[in-house]
Amino acid sequence: MMEAVGSAQTLTDVSIELPGRQSGKVREAWPLSGGRRLLVTTDRLSAFDRVLGAVTHKGQVLNQLSAWWFGETSDIVANHVLSVPDPMALIAVDAKPLPIEVIVRSRLTGSTSTALLPRYLNGERELYGHLLPDGLKPHGPLGTILITPTTKALKGGHDEPISSDEIVARGLVDEILWAKVQAVALALFERGARIAADAGFLLADTKYEFGLDAEGELMLIDELHTPDSSRFWLVETLQRRLDEGLTPEGFDKEPVRLAFSAAGYTGDGTPPTLDPGVWQETSDRYVRLYEALTGLHFSPASLPAIERLTTNLAPYLGGEPTATTAV
Q1: What is the number of domains present in the chain?
Q2: Do 81 and 309 meet the contact criterion of CB atoms below 8 Å apart?
Q3: Containing domain of residue 193, as a range?
Q4: Is the peptide bond before 87 cis (omega within 30 degrees of 0)?
């Protein structure tokens, strides 16, 4: 049986009668036979390490955009994609994740506790093992591309900054593998930044997750260069907005973060209710970014999502599961 929770337009949860379910902030995953894994990308939106709402078309954009990027970067590093049976689902290699999130940054920006800008403005100069010079401007270039890793928080916790030296010293990732991870991450960022620039966007920063396959080989997993994992800024308005002291025009989830921050929310306690327009604008920007980056037309998947998922995933689940929807 497959069961879903959401609204007529969004999918916020889906459960399948399979053992070993793992729930992330946005994705639900189940191990399959043959060293495979099923991942379903919901419409949930997370910020401040918490799920704060749902965005129409978000799961589809993330799943299809990641699949596109994985294809565009497969010459740099192997990835976990085996097939895309549904606009919101992926069949992947069941890799063993590394316990580190790899954040690559080209700009002094961000609004969360692990971001560079708030800490820099607070006077900190040594961040993630890097010494930053005085005089950097908010949202301006860092001068060099930096890797700023974080630990992976347990459910309900917060990711914590960590330096490369600490990663190796604590035995989280061995020195040789960590050097390879960093080289791959920089190559991925360069590719992503170039493609984004061709589409009229600046890739300010992004998050990568890596794992090891059954043979111990490095593999790119999770998602890639999506509006959830990256900050994309519209180049056309960037310099004017910076000159006027405004934040960059983001085609990612940063406007939601900023809206919560403006309401005084920092990640603890009950989140405030945002204007519905914030959520709709976020959906529109996700779709616009998808089309700009890929050059493809975005076709919304048929609804209700649970019926479509039931049909498309049946061959992978060993039968014809019965769908029930809870709203």
Answers
A1: 1
A2: no
A3: 2-326
A4: no
